[in-house]
Amino acid sequence: MVFYLIYTSKPRVPMTPEVVEDITKASIRNNLRDDITGMLLAIEGHYLQFLEGNEKKVLALLEIIKSDVRHKDLIVWVMGFQEKRIFTEWSMGSWMLSNDELTKLSALDDISGFIKNPQNADMQSIKFLSMMNSLLKTWIAHEPERSKKLREGMSN
Asked: 46 has which bridge partners?
């Protein structure tokens, strides 16, 4: 069984591609060491992150994120155990989207709904895991070069 959690936070500093890339690079380095995988979405004033791995290591990482000066108003929405990892190909992927881009990608309708109303009980647990699978497939389709680089980075 693999532990997972999903949280949202708001940026304390302006959300730019450079900030998201800095977070991603640090996450890749640290997550490789701790065998944590996941995905970070940066969507106009919100971060949404899915983390999976050993429960103690993921929860320790969450405490680090809570103290990170780039995040505020962090809320954990879902946590639990699943049979296997969703993000097996890399330690951390990231995708910066505008609300407009998010609504144009039908595979991400559920994420758009969650960002608008994260307390919606329908978005918890199994449906959220399905949503993360859709996110992964959509991201790979829209970011094939970044996806390839991340997969290659995991094999080094």
From this structure: 43
CB 28 within 8 A of CB 153: yes
- Secondary structure class of 84 (helix, strand, coil): coil
HSE-CB of 140 using CA atoms within 13 angstroms: 14
- In the chain, which ranges are continuous DSSP H helix? 17-34, 55-67, 99-104, 109-116, 126-142, 144-155
Report the predicted TM-score, pTM, of the whole model to 2 decimal places: 0.72
Residue showing tokens 């709904």: 113
Is residue 115 within 8 A of residue 43, CB to CB? The reply is: yes
Q: Mind listing the pLDDT tens digit for each residue in 116-139?
A: 665 555 544 555 556 666 666 665
